[in-house]
Amino acid sequence: xxxxxxxxxxALLMTKETRVLVVADLHIGWEIALxxxxxxxxxxxxxxxxxxxxxxxxxxxxxxLIIGDVKHTVATAEISEWHDVPDFFTEFKAYxxxxxxxxxxxxxxxxxxxxxGIKTLPSSxxxxxxxxxxxxxxxxxxxxxxxKTLVMGHVHPVVGFRDPAGFRITKQVxxxxxxxxxxxxxxxxxxxKIKIENNPQETLLKHYxxxxxxxxxxxxxxxxxxxxxxxxxxxxxxxxxxxxxxxxPILRSDAIDLENAEIYLLDGTFLGTLxxxxxxx
Length: 281
Fold this sequence. Notes:
Strands 7, 8, 9, 10, 11, 12, 13 and 14 form an eight-stranded mixed sheet that branches. A six-stranded mixed sheet has the order 1-2-3-4-5-6, with helices on one face. It is an alpha/beta fold. It has one domain: 4-Layer Sandwich (Purple Acid Phosphatase, chain A, domain 2), CATH 3.60.21. α2 (45-59) packs parallel to α3 (79-92) and α4 (181-191) crosses α5. The chain contains seven helices and 14 strands.
């Protein structure tokens, strides 16, 4: 069972054998993007580290799983990241037995920054018990369809609210969406260039030895609370443009019912469905 750790943007997966603390989108070094715009703030890495230490102390996981975007720059690594990323993991290794990283779209040239003993995983995802994890900027592997639940990051989900005076605020949220199992199976097989014979389920069984079980997708809020994001409930009359602005290929597919997705604040408050929240954007 995977459980959000309210009021933190983190989750805990408990199995018979282990406990896994799951976070997404640290974006260590995001301050660089601000400095390029003339806004100078000190590194926030120590705050991220302290927040993780608090969670480790409270829940005592064996594994820390980061589902993508450890650092902020995309293809390379800036000077400050060469300091902050190694320092972050070197210090954190003393608090948890294993650290696993799923590669995100911001994790180019990440390997030279990591100390020994950190396990890196492909962006197509990994499976722990009955939960499949992937970053979200690419399609997950069809192998993840054996899981009932998928969990992704990448989106930095927030919703926007506007009061009668016109002031607008945004809040980080969790997103829980239903999946069309058959449609998702068909799409992932096609994206992996596997010819569908008879039906998607039989083809998946033939090539991967599994039957599709996926029925829900969770989108995690970013662990770095300073990142912000594009409000999911922002209105746009042009459906084609709107589709292009949705982050992540799986969310742009017909297999995910994003309009009727349930939206929760970090403290667990249920806000309604995404379609209902568009009236408050």
